[in-house]
């Protein structure tokens, strides 16, 4: 009787070890399949392209945002740095009525049509 119980326990132990081993093998195979068949992130390449384009645009526009320069010299329109423009706007808009009239005058000056250049005289006149 004692040997019967011993054999049953050892058979039970073998079954448990075999079951755990097979579960480990199946789990490992599932992990390998997921590793080898995983698709790349959706739009990863397009995202990288967009980041590069954004970097290029910011690099190209940095001198325009950070420096003084003529925007239209014939009309007397000057581009100023962004931080300075913010400061001036905060100061100017303390009085909204005066700031609006000043803004309207500057817009009229900036978008006014340029005078026509003098016409060339006809060489046969």
What does this protein look like?
By secondary structure, this protein is mainly alpha-helical. The protein has a domain at 68-110. It is 69% helix and 6% strand. It contains 4 helices and 2 strands; from the N terminus they run H-H-E-E-H-H. It has a two-stranded antiparallel ribbon with strand order 1-2. Strand 1 (69-72) and strand 2 (77-79) form a beta hairpin. The radius of gyration is 39 Å and the shape is elongated. It starts with a helix and ends in a 14-residue tail after the last helix. The mean pLDDT is 86.
Q: What percent of the residues sit in helical stretches (DSSP H or I)?
A: 55-70%
- Low-pLDDT windows of residues: none
Task: Spell out the helices and strands N to C.
Answer: HHEEHH
As a whole number of angstroms, the C-alpha radius of gyration is 39 Å
Find the count of extended strands (DSSP E, 2+ residues). Answer: 2
Mean pLDDT comes to: 86
Distance between the termini: 137 Å
Percentage of residues in DSSP E strands: 5-15%
